[in-house]
Specification:
This protein is an alpha/beta fold and about 350 residues long. It folds into 2 domains: about 170 residues, 3-Layer(aba) Sandwich (D-Maltodextrin-Binding Protein, domain 2); about 140 residues, 3-Layer(aba) Sandwich (D-Maltodextrin-Binding Protein, domain 2), CATH 3.40.190.10. Helix 8 crosses helix 13. The radius of gyration is 20 Å and the shape is globular. Strands 3, 4, 5, 6, 7, 8, 9, 10, 11, 12, 13 and 14 form a 12-stranded mixed beta sheet that branches. The protein has a two-stranded antiparallel ribbon with strand order 1-2. The protein is built from 13 helices and 14 strands. Strand 1 and strand 2 form a beta hairpin. Helices cover about 35% and strands about 25% of the residues.
Length: about 350
């Protein structure tokens, strides 16, 4: 079963004679002046709003026009020349491809130079969070079962309890979700258990999603027993609101993806000064030692992962291997064979 890609409804947002953008959420934050910073982002408004409000306090004269889209829509929009001043996405492979192919402007400051080398590339693209992929489970649906700590243990639990988990496993539809495709391809490179897990999930009739937030909500409501590879930052935010203990977060100890949320200034940007100022703010917050009250985790959390054998996915040309059309087609064919068993 496929879940539609609607957050608060689908809006067709006209951007020019040849471009229409599917907006999932949109808000205008008025400033006191005439300048408008236009941001296109995959980050939910509720998650990114604290950063917007902090920027407004620092730059009260600048209005902020914030549009939430899927990672694949963002990619197509920038390719099509849509007029945005800042592009923010969790699909770091698609972001890197745009920067590498000339769709980003260079930007340099003391704040961006302070970022570690693995969190920036050629003054074109900048990471400001590191966020692991996690498994989220509904506690009641796992009653009486040992909680898995590795993929092999998860495979065994799903395989041995088909009645409990049939139709109750959620994961990304990697054909449409840029972040889902990134997590899937990186996992394929890193663990032999990836395809075996897909085959086991495929026999259970998995529910396929565009976005982490929808999966986590369905776990909390009991429609899903588990959601695989959702963003840990979104799961933690949902857990903080879940007073009934319905949601638990499992971090697989054998291997964990950790993506970098990135930002760049599109080549077509007009309000580049304000875009650079927001990048500076995000870069500064990225280097804080502890999460604090901010919704998204800093880059400093990458250290704990590296200490036990895994760390963030790196910015670099290797990200584009699976974006090659032939490689993508082959991967998706194998994924469909595993996940859509008849």
């Amino acid at each position: 079963m496929r879940i539609p890609v609607f957050a608060l409804g689908l809006i067709l947002w006209a951007l020019g004679p040849a471009t229409a953008l599917e907006i999932e959420d949109h808000r205008l934050y008025p400033g006191t002046g005439d300048r408008i910073l236009r941001i296109v982002s995959t980050t939910d408004l509720a998650v990114f709003e604290p950063y917007i409000q902090a920027f407004r306090r620092a730059q009260p004269g600048v209005s902020i026009d914030y549009s939430v889209v899927s990672s694949s829509v963002l990619h197509r929009a920038i390719l099509g020349g849509a007029q945005f001043d800042l592009a923010v996405s969790s699909a770091m492979d698609l972001q890197f491809q745009l920067a590498n192919d000339g769709f980003a402007q260079r930007y340099n400051s003391s704040a961006t130079e302070a970022l570690p080398d693995w969190a920036r590339w050629r003054d074109l693209i900048f990471a400001f969070t590191t966020e692991p992929a996690v498994v989220v489970i509904n506690s009641a649906r796992f009653a009486g079962l040992s909680l898995p700590t590795t993929r092999q243990e998860l495979i065994a639990i799903l395989r041995d309890n088909p009645d409990r988990f049939s139709g109750a496993v959620g994961t990304y539809d990697v054909r449409d979700s840029g972040l889902g495709y990134l997590f899937a391809t990186q996992e394929d490179r890193s663990t032999d258990a990836y395809w075996r897990l897909n085959e086991v999930m495929g026999r259970l009739g998995p529910r396929l999603y565009c976005c982490s937030a929808q999966m986590i909500d369905d776990v909390a409501e009991g429609r899903l027993a588990l959601a695989y590879n959702v963003l840990g930052s979104y799961a933690a935010e949902r857990l903080a609101r879940d007073s009934g203990g319905r949601v638990q977060i499992l971090k697989m100890q054998d291997f964990s993806n950790a993506m970098l949320r990135t930002a760049f200034v599109p080549a077509s940007a007009q309000e580049t000064e304000a875009a650079g100022a927001l990048i500076d703010m995000l870069a500064t917050l990225a280097l804080r030692e502890a999460p604090g009250d901010w919704p998204l985790p800093p880059l400093s959390q990458a250290g704990a992962g590296q200490a036990i054998g895994f760390g963030p996915i790196r910015l670099g040309p290797a990200l584009m291997v699976y974006l090659d059309p032939l490689n993508r087609r082959a991967f998706l064919t194998e994924w469909e064979n595993a996940m859509e068993q008849r």
